[in-house]
Amino acid sequence: MLQLRTEDALTYEQNELSHINSIIEDYAWDDQKYHTKLIKHKISTYTLRQQNCRCVYCERLLIGLNPQIEHIADKATYKDFSFETLNLATACCYCNGPTNKHNEDTVLVKNANYTKCEFKIVHPYLDNVEENFVYLNNSRFVYDYNKCSEKGKFTIDTLGWDKIQHLYIFAQVQEERSKPLPIDLEELIVEISTYRPKT
Question: What is the pTM assigned to this prediction?
Fold first, then answer.
């Protein structure tokens, strides 16, 4: 899982904040206005850049993996957090798919202040990722499940990382890390970013 820094989270312009505040009660994320799509596209390109075009969870390069803006606290359940920048990352269609995280409730205790919420999942911004996972060996893709934190176990279970196919995925990620991107990062972001508004 990627470790993201709170100080690197996206910031909104004042006009974007005003627009978000105007839609948060009614439509929130599902709003179809042009300005909303521009904001969502900004989120997509920003998170892809911050994550070097890798899934926030499994760390796979997102080429051909239908990248999606991920709401760590589900946007349907926690509408007021749907544009909270610390709640947003980009994930692959498998980690955020219907059989894995998708709409899983990851919040243990909600607080109006997002940073004071208690999460069940390892949070890429708010937790020290390394402290929650223990590996069986130096390869760093086989977890010692019983030694992981409770959040680590919940994350492994929720994202399906205990399935055999994930061993192959994590092995592939380790191999990919030593190789340069197959395409310029900015070019790749343009290719795979979502919510491109039509003019």
Answer: 0.89
